[in-house]
Amino acid sequence: MTAREAASILELVPEERHYSAIGFAANRDNVLSADLSDYRIVHFATHGIVDTQYADLSALVLSQFDSMGRPRNGYLSLRDIFGLDLNADLVVLSACETALGREVSAEGLLGLTQGFLHAGAKAQVVSLWPVSDRATAELMAEFYSNMIEDAMSPVDALRAAQRSIVSQRRWADPYFWAGFVLVGDWL
Fold first, then answer.
1. Domains in the chain and their CATH numbers?
2. What Rg, from alpha-carbon coordinates, does the chain have?
3. Residue 43: its H or E element
4. Three-class SS of residue 15?
5. CA distances (Å), origin 90, targets 45, 53, 82, 85
6. Helix (H, G, I), strand (E, B) or coil at 48
7. Are 23 and 46 spatial neighbours (Cβ–Cβ below 8 Å)?
8. pLDDT tens for residues 31-40?
9. Helix, strand, or coil (residue 103)
10. For residue 143, how many other CB atoms are within 10 A of its CB?
11. pLDDT tens for residues 100-123?
């Protein structure tokens, strides 16, 4: 599903204006070595692990193996995320529970969202609960179409995408569309 999600989004962006890492190329080393500061939007379609007790154990799950089948560290940890150099207007974490974290007294919520904000993301689309891969792929395709083709702001694009998804009978239950929220700079 994540490959289909990525393909539908990449169709909207001219090839010279995007960088994609799919399959084995979607790995921790590529994320850490890429110059992500050049990109206005950074999208991760993967699995999220959020540890609400030990925030340092939170991570995005990337490829666990190289193309030869050898194991590799496929976890983009919260510490890794804090070390990224982003200048992104928007980071999209199309994965389960990416808005969650550990409540830290006088600090707020420590998790993936705070890590990406610290790394330079102005806004993020993140999820509040486990999400359906198929419904999320459709939601994200609609979201990006709204932003790119209809020049909507991220908050308006997300709202319109959610309204579109809810109008489809099979995705009408809020479980399928209401989990994604925009945090940070909404404009």
1. 2-184 (3.40.50.1460)
2. 16
3. strand 41-45
4. helix
5. 14, 27, 16, 13
6. strand
7. no
8. 999 999 999 9
9. strand
10. 27
11. 999 888 888 899 999 999 999 999
Sheet of 47-49: strand order equals 47-49, 59-61, 75-77
Assigned token pair, 20: 């994609």
Give the 3-state secondary structure of residue 34: coil
Indicate yes or no: pTM above 0.85: yes
CA distances from 6 to 1, 10, 38, 95, 167 (A): 9, 6, 19, 13, 23
The DSSP string of 104-170 is: ETTTEEEEHHHHHHHHT-SEEEEESS---HHHHHHHHHHHHHHHHTS---HHHHHHHHHHHHHTSGG
Percent of the chain as helix, strand, coil, to the nearest 5: 40, 20, 40
- Give the tens place of pLDDT for each residue, 126-143: 999 999 999 999 999 999
Q: How confident is the model at residue 186 (pLDDT cuts 50, 70, 90)?
A: confident
